[in-house]
Amino acid sequence: MVMRSYRSILALILAMVATVLVSCGSPTVKAPPSYSAEQIVQIQKLASTVEALRDKMPVLADKIQNQNWTDVGTYIHGPMGELRRNVSYLTRELLPQDQKAVSSSATDLFSSLQNIDVAATKGNYQVAVQNYQAAMKDFDDILQLLPKQRGSAVSR
């Protein structure tokens, strides 16, 4: 009979130990990855090069408006030619979840520029204007998706 009471006490102690171990051993909530201050500075530096190219887009609009098709193609391959490289550098600095969205908008932007070039080759004003508007939207989408430093907090 004494043996039964020892077994009951031992079972109770083991149950309490198991409960404590299970409650203390739960996985901790992992914080989502975030940008360091240095990464934000680098991203903003690269973003400024992309923004500078966006600021040059009205020149392309004037060339399209005047239907100066040779200059349209030259401008896309000249001053806008470094856009792909700059966006690529910028995208590599982003966290994986942000890379996907920026890459998608960048692909759309490059497609719009390519379509403007094709429209210029064919002298198609309407297609050039439509793709110019799409390119401007894609530029804005890319720049809005980038993280920005506000005080000590990182936001989008």
UniProtKB/TrEMBL annotation:
It comes from the Bacteria. GO terms for biological process: photosynthesis. One of its GO terms (cellular component) is photosystem II oxygen evolving complex. GO terms for molecular function: calcium ion binding. It holds the Pfam family PsbQ. Keywords: Membrane, Signal, Thylakoid. It is found in: Membrane. Residues 1-31 form the signal peptide. Its main location: membrane. This is Photosystem II protein PsbQ. The gene is psbQ.
